Each structure stands twice: as structure tokens, then as C-alpha cells.
Amino acid sequence: MTDFAGLWLLFSSSFLSSTLLPGGSEAILVYAAHEAFAPDALLWLIATVGNTLGGMTGWLIGWWIQKRYPARALVKPSHQQAMHRLSRYGSPILLLSWLPIIGDPLCLAAGWAGIRPLPALLFIALGKGLRYALLLATVSTLLSMT
Hints:
Layout: H1 3-17, H2 25-35, H3 40-68, H4 77-89, H5 103-113, H6 117-145
Helix pairs in contact: 1-2, 1-3, 2-3, 2-6, 3-5, 3-6
């Protein structure tokens, strides 16, 4: 795998794994760091940008759904409760968008709940960037021990 192909694969995997599709961007990031395709800072940037754009795609889908099915029309109490929590905590809750299982739907629900795009982008990027930074720091530490 060439450097460019590896970086493109990292970006694509990061993007897709942050949508409602399954993905394993962490494994590709660890592999790329181990093989030293690029400096860790570049790997971090590519993975963070891809994952953030994927999260914002979920947000955009939620925003689009909200235009057709307003949140006030929700019937199930669990859905109403979820929207209430999003309204209560606002955009900082998107720091948790990196979490497995709940992160992707959280981005979609944030768009549906009307969380503004710029704060959503900021908190999604911050949460996802911190996760990748921790992962790269762990890999770097483990590689230096061998």
C-alpha cells in the first residue's frame, strides 16, 4: 500500500465509520502509525477530519429529517426524552459522538433537535480528535517499548 493509498484508506474508513455504517478506522490508524505511512500529526488530522465529516453527515441527515418530521411530532416517550436531553445539554453533548453505538445516532439526533451546525462541528471534531490523539499516544508509547 502506497503512502497516498494508505492515507486515502484512513480518510475513507474514518468517514464511513462515523456514519451509520460500520467501520474500523481505529485499526487502520494503528496500522498506519505502526507502518509510519506519515507523521502521527498528519494521521491524526486525516482521521479526525474524515470522522468529523462523517458525523456532520449524520447531523445533516437529522436536519433534513427534522424539516419533514418535526421533533414535536414524536409520539414515543423514549424519543421525546432523548430530544429533551439534547435540548437540555445542547451541543456539548456531541463531545460523546465518538462513542460506539450511541455516537452516530447522537449526531443524527442533534441535527433533528436543531443544534446549530457550527457548535455541532466544533464539539464533534473535539471529541473525535481527542479519541484519535489518545489512540495515537497509546500506540506511540507501545511502539517505543518494543
